[in-house]
Amino acid sequence: GNSVTQMEGPVTLSEEAFLTINCTYTATGYPSLFWYVQYPGEGLQLLLKATKADDKGSNKGFEATYRKETTSFHLEKGSVQVSDSAVYFCALLNEKLTFGTGTRLTIIP
Amino acid sequence: KAGVTQTPRYLIKTRGQQVTLSCSPISGHRSVSWYQQTPGQGLQFLFEYFSETQRNKGNFPGRFSGRQFSNSRSEMNVSTLELGDSALYLCASSLDLGVSGTDTQYFGPGTRLTVL
Hints:
- Chain A is mostly beta strands.
- Chain A contains no helices and twelve strands.
- The radius of gyration of chain B is 13 Å and the shape is globular.
């Protein structure tokens, strides 16, 4: 079946630090991969996506590359801001979205 | 273009009651999916509708049901509510979940259901 394993949180970083949130997956076929972000009291917002191997998704300074050989889709950002504090979900799409457990990120000034 | 809207945003019910939640997708989107989010189980898929037909269903009891109307709006119903049904219920829409390139799902703000 499909599954997503995501880096356990919470993660606390100082402003301008480098961010990596690890995500690996198990799936049949070639699913599309997504990162969603959830701010307090809100629904999920699409952050970025990749639909095939070696695709790089990017948005708002965040990047993730679809690595088929390592079945990974790690999220990175070179310099985080306080406004990036949120919960981040890695997900794969194979008829339905299967989510990781979420990683709570807190950025301190 | 307006996003996905869900009503109501908050609901308080008691055990044994039933509840109906509503979702209006982004204009032009024909696929609507529902998810349940709880602290213990995370985000879990409930079901997906396309052109008024349920195409996919998650592992939830029959108390959870849904439907989709000809304008793509969708409702989900939970009967005989239990304490464990307390959750954030999220609706997501896409052009067509079954077709690569049109399958990105956009989420609404959710309905927070509390069962007492």
